[in-house]
Design goal:
Strand order of the largest sheet: 33-32-31-30-29-28-27-34
Strand content: 35-45%
CATH topology of the largest domain: TIM Barrel
Number of domains: 4
CATH superfamily of the largest domain: Glycosidases
Mean pLDDT: 93
Radius of gyration: 27 Å
Structural class: alpha+beta
């Protein structure tokens, strides 16, 4: 039977140089260096400080372990869930494997290289190159073994471990004439008989079948129905092997379980109408949500399960029904959490910003791995081929690469759609717009460019030019730092107040265009982008609705909660804008309870209906604000001062990183 041992503990780490073989020979073999546990990144802090050249190099990880017990003819594999960005795997001085791509799972057969005592060495190569994506993008490229490593031992007969990191079974559910049909294809090594069991959400067996490629009927299927009812079934596949074995022939009936794998799935259907948008299970289901980067302060991408769970909880709190998992394959566990939460997922590879002629094969392989590894998840509805790939010039090879990846996606998965995230400057009639099933634009009019109205015009212009191509809005956002505020906010000031204005304008643009199949705010969380130096906080992109450390919900967070969430609430904006000048001040209240009454020092200022309520408040020396709607209320305090508080103004230099002070 399959046995899995976690290998995260007790590694030796050496921050290396660019000579990989020297790092291996001189350092790892001596087994000296820093003791670390996984997950680990070596430039977690360095990749968030805005330095001109954060550490990108070859670094060494080494671990000693005894040989695991193996059945006769059994196998041993190492499973790596994420090593950025090229991994060279050595066991006992022998190089066994190289993997290019820092965000996908890979496995290494170590059976024949095992000794009684073993030295495992991983060289993680995060250097700049022109063969592995990504190399140019607005986020930090962390180095390290930043996801789990497992040692897996198997019987001679087992589900295939060499099939692109896949779970060993491919599950394709569909609805036919009101009946559920789930097709299960098993990838088997060594022979045996596959017994497939389908269990409902309570764990009750609803159907069984025998075979490596079976179609199983599930009567009266319960649909996976988005955030309201994300119902999941489970497929359990057991590989039955023979009870006895001799060196020449098998001499028994299939009698025991040699290997077992399982995966959850959901019955759902969807389509996209170019005029009416996204439909889930036959009903209109406009996708409105956020983009997500995975990194955290100081540790970069070396995050643990509880951090994934916290991100999902915050996305659910805001009321989103979709998440764009940008700009790479995310951890397996996060897709599982999206399945359970009912979040519709846009999944993509890091083919981003700048096409590299020497990296076509790598873009193809990263997409192939993404589909193989995440195919079973009902949350995923589309595979994104590239993001802002026209930001830099390229020849005809770029278009051909897109066509090749698009065709491969449909060959590997004919149940989902393909999509492209377009750079806002890209011309509407660019040939790339004709490649994928869906198109979405990254638009920042009102932030990088003036005039909010141009965003709506660009969307309408595309819609008129491509009547049969569904169009979405894949990115839009504005920077905001929680310490910056202004009574009269302006584009580029990084204040919370301007971020709110920006998103209010874009929500109007979206509401007026029901043809938008999906919209994704950039971004749910602030994230590291080491090349940046903006807003007095170098190394960061501040477009998140929540701060990098996940501790502060910016005011714009509550704007979206007002539009998307069913949980009644009311929120006074500007709580951090305490010191204000003048006789009056502007106060905005966000709510999904139908409207708001605003009081100052117990006196009613006004009453408005709607999700966005704006008031002009006469100021006393001290002001105690209360916003009410029925039984719900929120409070804020404002102090009138004689001159503007200088701490609220954008500083061009300096470092305001609150998370460094923790």
């Amino acid at each position: 039977m399959r046995k899995t041992v976690n290998f995260n503990k007790d590694w030796i780490f050496i921050l290396g140089n660019d000579d990989a073989e020297k790092a291996f020979a001189d350092e790892c073999r001596n087994f000296t260096g820093e003791h670390v546990d996984l997950p680990h990144t070596w430039n977690g802090k360095d990749g968030q400080d805005g330095g001109n050249d954060y550490v990108r190099c070859v670094s060494s990880y080494a671990k000693k372990f005894p040989a695991p017990p193996l059945e006769r003819g059994g196998k041993a594999y190492l499973q790596f869930k994420g090593v950025n960005s090229t991994a060279h795997i050595y066991l006992n001085g022998k190089k066994l494997f190289t993997h290019d791509g820092g965000y996908s799972k890979f496995r290494v057969d170590i059976t024949d290289a095992l000794k009684k005592e073993n030295l495992l060495v991983v060289l993680a190569d995060n250097r700049k190159n022109d063969t592995v994506y990504p190399q140019t993008a607005d986020f930090t490229f962390y180095g390290g073994i930043y996801r789990d490593v497992d040692l897996i031992t198997l019987s001679p007969s087992h589900f295939d471990m060499d099939h692109l990191g896949s779970p060993g079974i491919k599950i394709t559910p569909e609805i036919k004439d009101g009946k559920g049909i789930v097709c299960v294809k098993s990838y088997v090594v060594g022979g045996g008989e596959v017994h497939v069991t389908v269990l409902d959400g309570s764990g009750k067996v609803v159907a069984t079948e025998i075979g490596e490629d079976v179609a199983i009927e599930v009567p009266s299927p319960h649909l996976w129905n988005g955030v309201k009812d994300p119902y999941l079934y489970t497929v359990k596949a057991e590989l039955m092997a023979l009870g006895e074995y001799n060196s020449l022939v098998y001499v028994a009936e299939y009698a025991e379980v040699a290997d077992e794998v399982s995966a959850q799935f959901g019955f759902r259907s969807f389509y996209v109408d170019p005029e009416k948008g996204f439909f889930l299970n036959g009903r209109s289901y406009p996708l409105r949500g956020v983009c997500r980067h995975q990194d955290r302060p100081l540790i970069g991408n070396a995050i643990i399960a509880s951090m994934h769970e916290e991100d999902i909880a915050l996305i659910k709190e805001i009321g989103a029904n979709t998440v764009r998992l940008s700009h790479y394959q995310h951890d397996d566990y996060f897709y599982e959490l999206c399945d359970r939460a009912g979040l519709v997922v846009w999944a993509e590879i890091p083919y981003i910003s700048k096409h590299m002629d020497n990296a076509d094969d790598n873009a193809v392989s990263q997409m192939r791995e993404l589909i193989a590894q995440q195919y079973n998840h009902p949350c995923i509805v589309c595979w994104c081929i590239s993001n802002e790939i026209t930001m830099h010039g390229a020849g005809a090879d770029r278009l051909e690469c897109h066509k090749k990846i698009n065709a491969m996606c449909h060959k590997l998965d004919d149940t989902r759609l393909t999509v492209l995230a377009c750079y806002m400057i890209k011309r509407v009639r660019n040939k790339l717009n004709y490649v994928t099933d869906l198109v979405s634009y990254n638009l920042y009019h009102g932030w990088y460019l003036p005039f909010f109205s141009l965003a709506g015009r660009k969307l309408d212009r595309f819609h008129r030019a491509h009547k049969t191509v569904p169009l979405g809005l894949s990115e839009y956002g504005a920077e905001a730092m929680t310490g910056l505020h202004a009574e009269k906010p302006k584009r580029g000031d990084n204040t919370e107040e301007y971020q709110c204005i920006f998103h209010e304008k874009y929500l109007d643009i979206i509401e007026q265009r029901p043809y938008l199949w999906a919209t994704h705010v950039w971004n749910m969380f602030d994230f590291a982008a080491d090349a940046r130096n903006q807003g007095g906080e170098p190394g960061m992109n501040h477009k998140g609705l929540i701060t990098f450390d996940r501790k502060i919900r910016k005011d714009a967070f509550y704007l979206y909660k007002a539009y998307w969430s069913d949980e009644p609430f009311i929120h006074i904006c500007g709580k951090r804008f305490v010191n204000r000048c003048g006789k009056t001040t502007h106060v905005t209240v966000y709510t999904n309870a139908g409207g708001a009454e605003l009081y100052n020092n117990g006196e009613l200022i006004g009453k408005q209906s709607g999700k966005v309520c704006k008031f002009i408040v006469p100021l006393s020396d001290k002001n105690s604000l209360t916003a009410k709607c029925g039984e719900i209320a929120d409070n804020a305090e404002i102090i009138r001062v004689d001159s503007p508080d200088p701490s609220y103004k954008l500083r061009k230099k300096g470092n305001n990183k609150s998370w460094e002070k923790q």
